[in-house]
Design brief:
This is CehA/McbA family metallohydrolase. With about 800 residues, the protein is mainly beta. It is built from 8 helices and 54 strands. Strands 7, 8, 9, 10, 11, 12, 13, 14, 15, 16, 19 and 20 form a 12-stranded antiparallel sheet that branches. Strands 36, 37, 38, 44, 45, 47, 49, 50, 52, 53 and 54 form an 11-stranded mixed sheet that branches. Strand 15 and strand 16 form a beta hairpin. The longest helix is centred in the C-terminal third of the chain and has 15 residues. The radius of gyration is 28 Å and the shape is globular. The N terminus is likely disordered.
């Protein structure tokens, strides 16, 4: 049981204006609190919970707690000893909005030097209760931090730096993961280097606000293919001493802001009918600054710092937004907002009139904004997408015209309907989604997927599995960043085990002074109740050859290189300078992996990048390797990066889900795969499938057969046969219809040297409303068939001259 506040004695302590307990010129009484420090008795396993057994937990007031990494760091894992890992609040659930927060310093060249503590121990605080002391040396600078509990769920974090060189700055290394970091004036819409009085975070029912004077926040978020990825934040402090006040509250980011002493600007708003909903604070450019919830039964009063926000927008619990934003000045007295909507029931069945899981996208027409509906039923929502596990659910939409598109992946027909929603109206959208591509010999797999157990995703495990089932994926491999994830318990919870097979795995995300990229490893033993760091394969300050060996030592049968050429600093082939024309690379390049993700979902609108990935398969063949070709979504979200786009078809019947994973991995390891974001491309050379080695005839030629399958809604325009990474034959597909779209037997001649053959299909016409990406492309290509021209039993494709 957490001990609550007791006022016992008062003394004088210097505080800064607006930061009770921080340094400054104003005196205030010491608040004697009763807090305690105790070791963590078991590791955390929930999303964004990283405490391990033996870590110290400071239990403060109002049922709050702070966990500090105390246990020794594991070899080749990120060193975090002395970092604040978890923020706790009784009754709020096990997860929290913080990955880590640790003291650091920044040198004159702007390089960050985070502390890895030599000592983490219990020490008496001025308030008379136990606190946590953290100290150590980092690159000749000594950092000492005292963490003490205060009243009202607050904590004081005071750091003293000794030996800071000229031009250096005391700092904090703060990683909030995918949650919004709200700062002064700019809210969540910021990056760069800005001055701020606070940083506020929220998630999982916990709000956190960190305040300090003279603080600058710095972050450089990465933009890749239109997606902005989360990034750590560096907080810079003047001088050699910094005192920060940490507020921990129950609720959302608005509750965290309200705890700040300078949050004196109030507004009151709610729904006129008293229903619950959602609230956002925006600026004059309509940028979202901070969001929260509206409770049922009445309006909510919020408190904001000066300069943060100009208007308030309201959505009801069904996701329908009010037509007008309310200026904050108008909400000085209660502003009650009325929202009109219409009800739309959704129902999709297969060819036998049985419910079929469906992915449904809504698009506003004729000036109607795109909606962001919530959904009832066994279903999950993300932006303008909903995923219906039972093919049915109900949404409410604002009055207007919409296009409703439903799919069950690229082997089924498409449903597309336009509707007109009237205030208070009710209507049903019902249709059939039927299989039109015969995949009885194939298993559709996505070998690269993320959930809230990754530091850069907020998708729940339940929503992740629902998205896969609705897109018609047969096999899903969990690959969270440096976190072994097992989907199986959630598949049982959702009653999906007969439909969707799952495999525990990990995306090994290299870190340290030299980065090497990202690599999937699977299958791995389920993590059980172990701490994430204890079961993740080594990833920190480790060479590729050792990384691959450690992954196999952990049990992985498949090691896959992910997005091999993706900026910045996450593409292995770029980092190791693999030359696609010759196969040559840096000395530390290791090729002891099995699969290459030749098509990553981030490139769904970039055919040239996909071609680059296919040519990298040939680069490996120039090294004498026989890589498995895969294509995977790398999905981190429910809207954009959709699961199953692209996917890998493995040449084995899906069959029973109970042994599907074992059979699929065995078939995958033969190299018999084909990759697709729409068309299914089937290649044989001399009757053999990808992964096989064939001999040319006496005329130095081979017989090639290509078939391409797709539903009518998937554009297929051009088919190519590639030799050694370059198209050598071009064909045109037949007009759009369901099923077989192209079939041809041909001859590839002139095979004097070893070679590889690949088949490719694509279209310039975008996929359409099945994905939110306006220029998403339907691309399919096979794995490689290897031609042993000289009959020596090896295939070594010569480099380009």
């Amino acid at each position: 049981m957490i001990t609550h506040l007791r006022w016992l004695a008062f003394a004088s302590v210097a505080v800064m204006p607006g930061c009770s307990g921080c340094r400054g010129s104003k005196a205030a009484p010491i608040e004697h609190v009763e807090a305690r420090v105790e070791p963590l008795d078991k590791p955390g396993t929930a999303p964004r919970v990283y405490g391990r057994s033996g870590d110290l937990v400071l239990h403060g007031t109002r049922d709050t707690s702070i966990t500090v990494a105390t246990a020794a760091d594991l070899p080749n894992h990120r060193p975090l000893r002395g970092s604040i890992l978890d923020v706790g609040l009784a009754g709020a659930g096990p997860s929290d909005p913080l990955l880590w927060w640790r003291a650091a310093w920044v040198d004159s060249g702007q390089k960050l030097h985070p502390l890895v503590a030599a000592d983490v121990s219990t020490r008496r605080c001025p308030e008379g209760s136990d606190g946590v002391h953290i100290e150590g040396d980092v690159d000749a600078v000594h950092l000492a931090t005292d963490l003490c509990a205060l009243a009202d769920g607050r904590y004081r974090v005071k750091t003293l730096a000794t030996g800071l060189p000229a031009g250096a700055t005391l700092a904090d290394d703060l990683n909030p993961g995918p949650v919004d970091a709200v700062i002064d004036r700019m809210g969540a819409e910021w990056q760069g280097d800005v001055t701020t009085r606070f940083v506020a975070l929220a998630g999982y029912g916990i709000g956190v606000a960190l305040e300090a004077t003279g603080m600058r926040a710095r972050s450089r978020r990465v933009r890749a293919t239109g997606t902005i990825s989360p990034a750590p934040i560096t907080l810079l402090h003047e001088g050699t001493e910094a005192t920060r006040l940490l507020h921990v509250v129950r609720g959302d980011a608005l509750d965290a802001l309200a705890a700040l002493p300078f949050a004196t600007r109030t507004a009151t708003i709610g729904l006129a009918d008293g229903r619950p909903g959602f609230l956002t604070v925006r600026d004059n450019a309509d940028r979202l600054l901070v969001s929260g919830v509206l409770p049922a039964g009445g309006p909510r009063t919020i408190k904001l710092p000066d300069g943060l926000g100009e208007t308030l927008t309201v959505r009801d619990a069904d996701g329908v937004q009010a037509p007008r934003a309310v200026p904050i000045a108008e909400a000085a007295s209660p502003a009650l907002v009325a929202i009109a909507s219409g009800r739309v029931a959704l129902r999709f069945t297969d060819g036998r009139d049985a419910p079929v899981p469906a992915h449904v996208l809504f698009r506003g027409l004729e000036g109607t904004p795109d909606p962001a509906p919530e959904v009832t039923g066994r279903a999950y929502a993300g932006g303008r997408s909903v995923y219906l596990l039972d093919g049915s659910g109900t949404v409410h939409l604002a009055p207007g015209k919409y296009k409703v598109t439903a799919t069950h992946g690229p082997t089924y027909t498409l449903s597309s309907k336009e509707i007109d929603v009237a205030p208070g109206g009710e209507q049903t959208v019902a249709d059939r989604l039927t299989a039109v591509v015969d995949t009885h010999e194939w298993t559709a797999a996505d070998f690269h997927l993320h959930s809230a157990l990754s530091h850069d995703s907020s998708v729940s495990l339940q929503a992740r599995l629902a998205s896969l089932a609705c897109e018609g994926v047969d096999l899903a491999v969990a690959t969270d960043h440096n976190h072994v994830t097992d989907y199986e318990p959630v598949a049982r919870e959702l009653n999906l085990t007969s439909q969707l097979a799952t495999v525990p795995g990990v995306e090994i995300t290299s870190a340290g002074a030299r980065l090497w990229g990202h690599f999937n490893a699977f299958p791995l033993p389920p993590p059980g109740n172990a701490a994430p760091e204890e079961v993740a394969p080594p990833y920190y300050e480790i060479l590729p050859k050792d990384l691959f060996a450690k992954a196999r030592g952990a049990g992985a049968r498949v090691v896959q290189v992910n997005h091999a050429r993706m900026p910045p600093n996450i593409g292995y082939f770029d980092l190791a300078h693999l030359d696609a024309a010759t196969g040559h690379a840096d000395p530390d390049f290791a090729d002891d992996f099995d699969a290459l993700e030749a098509y990553n979902g981030f490139w769904i609108e970039s055919p040239d990048k996909v071609r680059e990935g296919a040519r990298d398969l040939v680069a490996l063949a120039r090294r004498g390797k026989r890589p498995i070709a895969t294509g995977n979504s790398d999905s981190h979200r429910l809207l954009y990066e959709e699961a199953g786009y692209p996917r890998t078809y493995v040449h084995t019947a899906a069959g029973s889900a109970s042994d599907r994973a074992v059979r699929t991995i065995e078939a995958m390891l033969t190299g018999d795969t084909t990759v697709s974001s729409g068309p299914l491309v089937v290649l044989t050379v001399e009757g053999k499938s990808p992964g096989a080695v064939v001999r040319p005839n006496a005329n130095k030629e081979v017989r090639v057969k290509v078939r391409v399958f797709a539903p009518a809604w998937v554009p297929v325009e051009t088919i190519e046969i590639w030799r050694d990474g370059e198209p050598v034959q071009h064909f045109t597909a037949s007009p759009a219809h369901d099923g077989l779209r192209f079939e041809r037997e041909t001859i590839v001649k002139g095979l004097q040297d070893d070679a590889v053959i690949l088949a490719w299909a694509e279209a310039r016409t975008p996929l359409g409303d099945v994905l939110p990406n306006p220029d998403a492309r339907a691309i399919g290509f096979s794995g490689l068939v290897y031609v042993d021209a000289n009959g020596d039993g090896r295939v070594n494709v010569p480099g380009k001259r």
